């Protein structure tokens, strides 16, 4: 079976991280994409496990050699999804999944059009605002900015293959798992298996 790249995206506060981690728990065979970062390791973090830790110069060289599916500046450091690492796993028939913002998802879609993109969104913007406030990690001006960004992100809905309303979390997780299972059994991803049967 051909490998698969799954991209979980959506606005801040939509619950994409929770859904992403729940999928990994339910489907342990899925490979978690490991990002490259220019920040220093924290605590017991190991290179190649939590992140690939690289210098600014090494990161620049990866950009120059088209070594990323996507990359971005986050506060004072840079993060990117390494192209070779992901493509090697897909070539080996693995399902690779990553959670990323909409800008990053757009970069990946442009470089790897066959990826499966899933947008996570609460049922209303009022609910999104409630979730942002309930987590109590953002100041008022940050919440206003995040809500505005969410509207812009949602307006790019046509670039996504699937849209999941995260109203009841368990239902949203079930939907995401079902999407991955269905994508795996598409005829186009199983051509080698079909041809093998035909040649028996």
Distance between the termini: 18 Å
* CATH topology-level fold name of the largest domain: Rossmann fold
Return the average pLDDT rounded to an integer.
Answer: 92
Strand element count: 9
- As laid out across the biggest beta sheet, the strand order is 2-7-1-8-9
| Share of residues in helices | 40-55%
**Do you know the CATH architecture of the largest domain?**
3-Layer(aba) Sandwich
β-strand amount? 15-25%
Structural class: alpha/beta
H/E element order: EHEEEHEEHEHEHHEHH
User: Counting H and I runs of at least 4 residues, what is the number of helices?
Assistant: 8
Parts with pLDDT < 50 across at least 5 consecutive residues: none
Which quaternary structure do these chains form?
A: single chain
Sum up the overall morphology in one term: globular
Task: Give a verbal description of the structure.
The chain has 200 residues and is an alpha/beta fold. The protein has two domains: 1-30 and 95-200, P-loop containing nucleotide triphosphate hydrolases (Rossmann fold); 34-93, Guanylate Kinase phosphate binding domain (2-Layer Sandwich), CATH 3.30.63.10. The protein has eight helices and nine strands. It has helices at 16-26, 56-64, 83-91, 102-111, 125-134, 140-154, 169-184, 191-198, and strands at 4-9, 31-32, 35-37, 51-53, 68-74, 77-82, 95-99, 116-121, 162-165. The chain has a five-stranded parallel beta sheet with strand order 2-7-1-8-9, with helices on both faces. The chain has a four-stranded mixed beta sheet with strand order 4-3-6-5. Helix 1 (16-26) crosses helix 7. The longest helix is centred in the last third of the chain and has 16 residues, at 169-184.
């Amino acid at each position: 079976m051909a490998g698969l790249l799954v991209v979980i995206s959506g606005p801040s506060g939509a619950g994409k991280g929770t859904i992403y981690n729940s999928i990994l728990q339910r489907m342990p065979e899925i490979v978690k994409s490991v990002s490259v970062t220019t920040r220093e390791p924290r605590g017991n973090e190991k290179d190649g496990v939590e992140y690939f830790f690289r210098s600014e110069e090494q990161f620049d060289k990866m950009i120059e050699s088209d070594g990323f599916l996507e990359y971005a500046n986050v506060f004072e450091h840079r993060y990117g999804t390494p192209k070779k690492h992901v493509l090697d796993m897909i070539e080996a028939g693995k399902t690779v999944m990553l959670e990323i913002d909409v800008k990053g998802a757009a970069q990946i879609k442009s470089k790897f059009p066959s990826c499966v993109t899933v947008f996570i969104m609460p049922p209303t913007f009022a609910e999104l605002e409630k979730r942002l406030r309930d987590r109590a990690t953002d100041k008022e001006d940050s919440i206003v900015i995040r809500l505005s960004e969410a509207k812009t992100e949602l307006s790019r809905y046509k670039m996504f293959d699937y849209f999941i309303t995260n109203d009841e979390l368990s239902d949203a997780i079930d939907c995401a798992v079902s999407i991955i299972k269905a994508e795996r059994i598409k005829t186009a991803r199983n051509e080698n298996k079909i041809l093998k049967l035909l040649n028996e």
